Structure formats: structure tokens, C-alpha cells
Amino acid sequence: MATTGAPQHTLKIHDLHAEIAGKPILKGVTMEIKSGELAAIMGPNGSGKSTLAYCLMGHPKYKVTSGTVTLDGQDLLALSVDKRARLGLFLGFQYPQEISGLSMAKFLWTAYAQRHPEPDIDTTAFDESLTTHLAYLDMDKSFLKRSLNEGFSGGEKKRSEILQMATFQPNIAILDEPDSGLDIDAVKAVGETVSKLQKESPEMGVLLITHYQRILKYVVPDKVHVMVDGVVVLSGGRELALELEAKGYDWVTAPAAPST
Fold first, then answer.
1. pTM of the model
2. Which of 18, 9, 98, 95 is nearest to 56 (CA)?
């Protein structure tokens, strides 16, 4: 939970509806993420989890048709993608893109400078932070010389996303399936790093999207929301994630038996 004295931030989503190419995907999502909290969204394929992430960040293919989203009281939906990022919103992609010719080092420095625009920016602090977070993720410094995600394995791309989150130091971080395609060791490294980053930055809230509870062994959620067909149908604590892992999603989606 949030630590007293740290800046407090709140992302509020209320009755959010969205569509893509005229097809409704989100059908009334309501939730709230605060500083120091980690909320996990789970659900079957096609339930709208990634759509929610893209809508929050402002992906142009997704059209919000009704509802509201605010970050610290500001209307997020009225802002361009870059302004949402400057406000402190971060999205870790499920499928990170490769950008040839842009080194990781240059990209990370540019992101850091955007969040620390003072005239005499502290390069020493940046270097120390980067070294620490590379170690968390078991990433060699040689990665910094490579073009962003170019030639990276799936696991390296996911670690790169978490490294970006650590550098950007967002107020609210959205992680879209950071565990997908990872082996057990990589899931552990990613999960433990997210947990460490929250402890380092008590003002940060995290919205983590996942199919499975395995990453939640290493980063314990305060809340678990289950999405089915574009709505949140169930919410609870970490025990709900364990129940979903054991029973699957059929018991959540199955209609109630008719009374006799």
C-alpha cells in the first residue's frame, strides 16, 4: 500500500466502453489504482484486458465510446499519447516493437530526461540507477549498445520493458502480460523486479495484466480483477488468482443454473 509522505496518485476508470473497427470490446469497466497498490487483471483470451491497456495509453485503433478515465483528476482521454506519458502513465507492451538505429542507452536517457527536465540533470544518478536495475533483471550492460529490442529474444524484450519502467519512474505503470512467453527464471526475475521497483517508488501504482497467477508468486497483488467479455465480473485478493489457476475460467463464465 501507499507510504505516508510520498506523492499520491490515482487512476480512476469509470464505466469505460470502447470498440475497435465498430466492434464493442469494453462494455463498462470500472476500477481504481492508487499509489503503492498493485492491481492484477486476469481473464481468458478476448476478454478485453489488452484493449483496456491500449485505451488507457491512447492507441489510435481503439475508440472510447463512453465512460471516463482520470489520472490525478485530469481527463486522461482528452490527452495525446505523449502528454499521457508526461503525466506519468507508462505501458509495458505485450509485443514490444523493434526500433533499428536507436540504442537502448539513448532511448532510456531520453525517457529519463523527460521525467527530470531540470537544467542540471544528474547523470550520475541515472548511471547508478541503470546499473542497479540491469542487475535486478540479470541483463548485461552490452544490451545498452544494441538497437531497441532489435534481435532480442522474447524474454529479453520483456526485461527491456521492465528496465524502461524502472528508468521512466512512472506514477502509474500498466504491464500487459509481462510474463507471456517467459521461462520460469525470467518470470521470477521480472516479477521480483516489479516488486522491488514498487518498494523503491512508493508513489507508483501498477496495473498488471496476466493470464496466469505464476508471476503473482513474486509480486503480490492487492487486488485481483477478473474480466470476461469486456466487463469486470469478479474482484478479490490474491486468493482469487490461486482459485483461477486451480479451476480455470469456466466457473466464472458459466451461467447460473436454473432454479427448480
1. 0.88
2. 18
